[in-house]
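Review session, final week

We close the course with one last complete record, chosen because it touches almost every idea we covered. It is XRE family transcriptional regulator, a protein from Flavobacterium circumlabens with 113 residues. Go through it on your own first, then we will talk.
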Amino acid sequence: MIKNRLKAERKEKKLSQEQIAELLFMDQSQYNRREKGLIKISTEEWKKMAKILNVKVEDIFESDDTLFSINTNDREKGKSKNGIKIKIIIPPSDLNELYKKLEELLIILKNKI
């Protein structure tokens, strides 16, 4: 999930990704992957970024997506079977809507039984 609040604050302060990365002792590409949400930002990094941007951590912090992982690989007598791995990434903001739709579907299915 793109860290829009972090990106907006950085741009408001007229700082480039390269400038922030240098202050964090990392390459611009490493910082870019964090801002894009491709790499998790550690608590310590959030604190450092907030200090660099002269804001509170809560002003720029955005949590990572909720990740659901389903692994159908079963083990039988010590042997693994080929299976399917499914990962579904859902932003927390979409979870309530998803729960409501699932509840509606469950009601429909129960009525058909």
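Two points worth writing down before the exam:
The chain has a mean pLDDT of 82.
The chain has two domains: 4-60, 66-112.
Good luck, everyone.
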